[in-house]
Amino acid sequence: MKMLSRFALMALVMSTASHAFALPAYAKKENKNCAFCHTNPKGAGKRTAAGEWYKAHAHSLKGFKEPTKPAPKKK
Question: Is 44 within 8 Å of 51 (Cβ atoms)?
């Protein structure tokens, strides 16, 4: 029984860990949606260029310039 309790606790921690660092407060602070910094529209997980910048610059977007997208190819 003790082993089952430990397993259940570990499963709970692991299931919530991926969401632990996606903070809606950051989106609110920067007036951006979660998808601005994350590839997942709900936040958490892999970051976009903006998300990597935000992490590396003390949770600030100051100085961030969005990468330019290439022009569509002509047919």
Answer: no
Q: Which residue has the tokens 């976009």?
A: 48
In 3-state terms the chain splits into helix, strand, coil percentages (rounded to 5) of 45, 5, 50
User: Could you say which DSSP state residue 46 is in?
Assistant: S
pLDDT above 90 for 62: yes
Q: Give the residue with greater pLDDT, 6 vs 56.
A: 56
| 3-class DSSP assignment, residue 63 | coil
What pTM was computed for the model?
A: 0.60
Cα separation, 18 vs 55, in Å, equals: 16
Residue with tokens 């632990």, as numbered in its chain: 20
